[in-house]
């Protein structure tokens, strides 16, 4: 494409919004621009690019804003964090009245359409604008906007135009309906207050549990679940004619464009509740039942309400009536800061205070020095020295700008002979017919996925009862079992944790997952839902049927089994399917780790599900930062001896399958890299996210090898694989050893 032409496909949009804006302004031909907007190829994702690039062009920007109203609901809901960030950005940094006003109007309109939209927009606005408190004029404007959002949500009950009201002023039936709608506006205001208090109590509970003795936490959590359900019952009694009073609205994503979101929490189950202890707080897991507000409204007359039960409750049994500290957000921010400051160097200080010397580390380094790759380790981890353990040295290390990612530098350097790695030459050995049958079509996805049934009769079962069975049992016992929209959700509630960056990474994971699925590639990623409630709190979907690799390793240590031995014994006749699942997930998360530079990949942050997949969680270190910025994890992605053993080592069909998946997945992501660029580019502008502290967007784009041929890309992918294998014996092993010595995480 000519440098001056405007992109017309998503594949051509590998330029940033500033360059796109420059081309639009230079063209000065609005008819030509409009023809692009009106073409059949103008997809929602292309619209987002042009929307962000035309903020200072009143005509095109207004046209695109109007086009947003006609975009798919699921698409719009996905981009709400970006829309809110964009609005906050132009409110503060851009003296552009038109751009700001059009986005304000659009977000207000979304709030009027549904209560769920309102809360998602409001929570994102609160989370992404905390820094604006330092600027009174800007923050005053944002507060005013929040009030307008609330007004639009409340007025959304009416959904009647002034003309319609005027035309029907003599229509008794219409006037009766109008009166009910006006009364609903008042009830919406009451509901908003109750819902807000309920969510705050859910978040505060994560902090309160920390003060409860460990043995009593589960019992206390169950007592609070009962109070939560009591609050829902009392809310139902406040208004039995409005569906949303039957529960708490939580803005979960809709499953597809043609179904209404199941986002009304109508019950919290005692079964499945659990507490997870951390250094500063106690995230907890609960199982909830959700239904669609629309379906509940349709069945409002047929859904029974126990009036006596509601009337018998008192304030002490009601979640909403409990006290909330005025400084809750300040408490959570302090806990968030404590977590972020608990870097690798703080852990070293803690470890040093518990022993007279770094004997374990000295022993570790002596072992590593005997390794033939020790020179590579020293070069790639030069920011780390085990002799610099004084407080002054720690402070110097923490304030130093991190080294540029060595995996990128080493991989793409054409001049340094020291880092030249020969292309992998894989000789595929013969495998039995069962393996060949599984991987005979490694690129095209089969129409059905073989689900491995839970091995309930196995002596080796670290996962316990399959969550699918639990969910089916809860559904059968639910009083909402006749609702088509009924979903049983397992969620984690966190207070004192900044989930904004987690949400950003999860958006990329979801986009990559969609790209793989659209291309029918057998690469596995597990997107899970993250809802940001404030800068320091949120709700996450719990990943079912998983155990951490750390927990599994501890379990296998007692059984005296290696990982591959466990796979073979537990999965038994399904081993080859589990092996294939493992390889497909390893390829998916290896590409994710490479593109986004995901760090802190110890075994506490890697899960294994009961199908054999690897699933990565906790993305606090990505894009430009690593724990302590110490340069430990220099590999493009994690590739351990255990992983190679499950793939039958390098000279095998499974390893060849992994290589083919890596290359095919890379090329497909490269083709649609603009979809990932736009997610990150919007959020990085003037952002206080830690991951953008040293982020270089141009360096990030280099990872996609946009100027390389297909053959060159294949060669580079093989280099990345080889580098990761070699680093598994050096820097990867060093970091895993460090986590074991300081935090007891097995490797």
The percentage helix is: 40-55%
CA-to-CA gap between the ends? 48 Å
CA gyration radius, whole angstroms: 27 Å
In DSSP terms (H or I, runs of 4 or more residues), the helix count works out at 32
- The low-confidence parts are 94-99, 347-432
Describe the structure.
By secondary structure, the protein is of the alpha+beta class. It has three domains: 10-162; 163-324, no CATH class; 406-443 and 546-743, Phosphatidylinositol 3-kinase Catalytic Subunit, Chain A, Domain 5, CATH 1.10.1070. The protein contains 32 helices and nine strands. It has a six-stranded antiparallel beta sheet with strand order 1-2-3-4-6-5. Strands 7-8-9 form a three-stranded antiparallel beta sheet. It is globular, with a radius of gyration of 27 Å. The two termini are 48 Å apart. It catalyses: a 1,2-diacyl-sn-glycero-3-phospho-(1D-myo-inositol) + ATP = a 1,2-diacyl-sn-glycero-3-phospho-(1D-myo-inositol 4-phosphate) + ADP + H(+). Residues 1-148 form the PIK helical domain.
Give a short overview.
This protein has 747 residues and is α+β, with helices and mostly antiparallel strands. It has 32 helices and 9 strands.
List the helices and strands and how they pair.
Elements (H helix, E strand, L loop, with lengths): L16 H11 L2 H8 L6 H10 L4 H11 L4 H6 L1 H14 L3 H17 L1 H14 L7 H20 L6 H6 L4 H37 L8 H22 L9 E2 L14 E12 L8 E8 L1 H6 L8 H6 L15 H14 L2 H10 L5 H11 L4 H7 L10 H9 L6 H7 L20 H7 L27 H11 L9 E9 L4 H19 L11 E5 L2 E5 L4 E3 H11 L3 H9 L3 H22 L9 E4 L4 E3 L24 H6 L6 H19 L1 H12 L12 H6 L7 H18 L3 H13 L4
Antiparallel strand pairs: 1-2, 2-3, 3-4, 4-6, 5-6, 7-8, 8-9
